[in-house]
Amino acid sequence: MDAKGKVVVGVDGSQASVDALRWALEEARRRDAEVHVVTAWHTDPPPVEGPPPVVGMPYHAAEEALTAQQAQQDQAMACVAGEAQGMTVYRHMVSQWPPRALVHLSTGADLLVLGRQGHSWVAEKLLGSVSAYCLRHARCPVVVVPARKPVQQERPNPVVVQAAPEPLY
Q: In this protein, which residues make up the domain named UspA (predicted)?
């Protein structure tokens, strides 16, 4: 019996991670691979290089964090329920700094899929970037699904006004 491939996808409850999950499911279907949906969180501040961050790091009790993250993963899975139909999907809840958890689970995977959040430069420097860390340390190819462009609302038709025949002053 042939071993199935393995696609790992990080899900944090954001729209970007739902888009990454959707992309991972499509790719896993093409590859006849199983999908490992990973939600990782930490209750302690992440490791920081350099001076301590200026912003406060929120603290959550472990049980509270697990409940919140499980709800986010459940919501993401509900968004793609139709696309996951008939596929082998494993769900993982990991209490660890997310980039390290994803890198660890990328061992033996064919692909690691992440959503692009689009944090500002300051947030990325202070908090780190999951995708940047995974790109440097993952043990398999990494796909970063770009953020969707926001849907622009239709603008009303411009009103055309005829120029005044005389000077305005």
A: 6-146
For the stretch 38-75, pLDDT in tens is 999 887 655 555 565 555 555 557 788 889 999 999 99
Q: What are phi and psi of 139, to 5 degrees?
A: -105, 20
Any idea of the CA torsion for 9, 10, 13, 17, to the nearest 10 degrees?
Answer: -60
Determine the number of helices (DSSP H) and then strands (DSSP E) in the chain: 6, 5
Cα–Cα distance measured from residue 58 to residue 3, given in angstroms and rounded to the nearest whole number? 42
- What is 5-47+59-145's CATH number? 3.40.50.620
Q: How far apart are CA 8 and CA 28, in angstroms?
A: 10
Query: What is the maximum alpha-carbon separation in the chain?
Result: 88
DSSP assignment of 29-60: HHHTEEEEEEEEE-SSPPP--SSPPSSPPP--
User: In degrees rounded to 5, what are phi and psi of residue 152?
Assistant: -85, 135
Cα–Cα distance for residue pair 116/114, rounded to 1 Å: 7
Instruction: Pull the structure tokens for residue 90.
Output: 């494993």
Q: Read off the pTM.
A: 0.74
* Domain boundaries of the chain, sorted by first residue: 5-47+59-145
